[in-house]
Amino acid sequence: MKQKLIIISGSPCVGKTTVAERLFDSLSNSAYLDGDWCWCVNPFSITDPRLRNGDKNMSFILSMYLNSVFDYVIFSSVVVMYKTIRETVINDITAKDFDIIGITLSCSEETLRARHKKRGDKGEVSFHWLHLPPYPGDVVINTDGKTVRQTVEIIKALIERTNG
């Protein structure tokens, strides 16, 4: 079986971190990187050129996990919704011969608003990220009405299909 880099992207509050953590817990010989850890800055602006250093950190950590021969490397991040950022991160990974499974989580504005409120985020909910097109080739999973467990099971079924 080839190693799998499982990329989970989507809007803030869509459930990336929760789903990725549960997926990580359910897969043996796995590693997990929340890309938010690599560019946690204040103020945050996607156009701040200093954030590209965070992209390099993501590539480095993903390289270390893949080169450490984990079967599954789970990577969640908002910024990899952008094609140029995702491709830069992937192209800078030093590991070779692994499969990439790209997933974009989505939901309705109503669901996002409810999750934003439940999380206790300050400020108004933004739908900007929710309406970005998914990365080309990503499997889009609408999480409306689904439990975290159900979403994880859908992802695990995708992983199994790539193993066959």
What is this entry, summarized?
This protein is α/β, with parallel strands linked by helices and 164 residues long.
Describe, in plain words, how this protein is organized in 3D.
The mean pLDDT is 92. The longest helix has 16 residues, at 52-67. It contains five helices and five strands, in the order βαβαβαβαβα. With 164 residues, the protein is α/β, with parallel strands linked by helices. Strands 2-3-1-4-5 form a five-stranded parallel sheet, sandwiched between helices.
Mean pLDDT: 92
Low-confidence stretches: none
For the sheet with most strands, the description reads:
5 strands, parallel
Secondary-structure-based class equals: alpha/beta
Which H/E pattern describes the elements?
Answer: EHEHEHEHEH
Q: Which value, in Å, is the CA radius of gyration? A: 15 Å
Helical proportion, percent range: 25-40%
The total count of helices amounts to 5
Q: Walk across the major sheet and give the strand order.
A: 2-3-1-4-5
Strand content: 15-25%
Shape: globular
Instruction: State the total count of DSSP E strands.
Output: 5
Determine the N-to-C terminus distance: 9 Å
